[in-house]
Amino acid sequence: xxxxxxxxxxxxxxxxxxxxxxxEALQIISAVLLTPEKVTISNIPDIIDVxxxxxxxxxxxxxxxxxxxxxxxxxxxxxxxxxxxxxxxxKKSGRLRGSVMIAGPMLSRFKKAYIPKPGGDKxxxxxxxxxxxGFEKLGARFEYNEELNYFQLVAPNLQGTYMLLDEPSVxxxxxxxxxxxxxxxxTTIYNAACEPYLQQLCKMLNRMGAKISGxxxxxxxxxxxxxxxxxxxxxxxxxxxxxxxxxxxxMTQSEITIKNAGIEHLGVIPEKFQQLGIxxxxxxxxxxxxxxxKYEISTYLDGGILTVYDHPWPGFTPDLLSIxxxxxxxxxxxxxIHQKMFESRLFFVDKLIDMGxxxxxxxxxxxxxxxxxxxxxxxxxxxxxxDIRAGQALLIAALSAEGKSTxxxxxxxxxxxxxxxxxxxxxxxxxxxx
Length: 434
Prior knowledge:
The protein is of the alpha+beta class. It has 14 helices and 23 strands.
């Protein structure tokens, strides 16, 4: 099992470009199943989760022409639907949470789908209820196979309907939208997710011939069509990487420019880091972060301690709470981190405490961080990455720490971040893969 060896305490400098958005990629690449025509996608992140999904589509019979690692043309004109019921499909798709995203397109075009037990991070329960209930409302029937641990769905006649989602799930909304685009009649989805990645999916589907209105709001209206054609699509830069690089610059007192950041799609992300006292300048579509000796966390107007919490878009993404938590360890001031969505995502703070951070884990969802104001530098330790986002946070902590850190189980980091060690070395980081 590979590890990162990091010698921290070095100031970094230079430019770094974010990869394409992983969470968008899993939706967009699944959507190629909706048409027999060619779909060309660019700015694809070259990471394990995305490559696994592309492999899975290839085994389904999708023709794949990968002109480069970030550009790929798909043509799903001869899909082997029976492969969905095979042991090979269950084994591979069970390793990848994103494999659930092919269910909507398969139901829409081929009238049946299989959903295996979810894979992915160990960050708490990740329910499939929104997906399954949405499919049922469109007319699908499902059975759960306890022995093989997967859902089988059949939908001979998908019919448009009104639905109010129990939660504004991004993947749930995307899957239901893809199932509904070729259903008969009109589908209305209220309390829909409205993240930029979902907006990107809807815009792509409209270019393919779908009729989706309300894009960017929590009320989507989908008029079913009989056929979707090919298109070209470019993915947004990954907002989680961008937030990570902002945090990295602050923690290591580095001068870094994030190139082609897609600033108009970042929502409140820059503002949240500014609340931690991090300075930044927006230069066209680049974000420049100057080297800062100190950064001070804001308080509320009445002097109360700042709370940073996750919330569905346009609120703050839960994927960056671990980065905010790490950055706060060296700030001036204190902050309460409230992780509402996943009950295990704060279970990496023990490693930061071992490094010398002052953190009180109040319960599975809340942690209070008391900033050290750089009076005491974090110290390097040996630790293991529990999930993708915590892994990146621990990597940032290691790069700012005194001495050597060893991060084990870096396959978790590799699932979400493309060649991160090479890219950090280009900024001057002392990191090697062992």
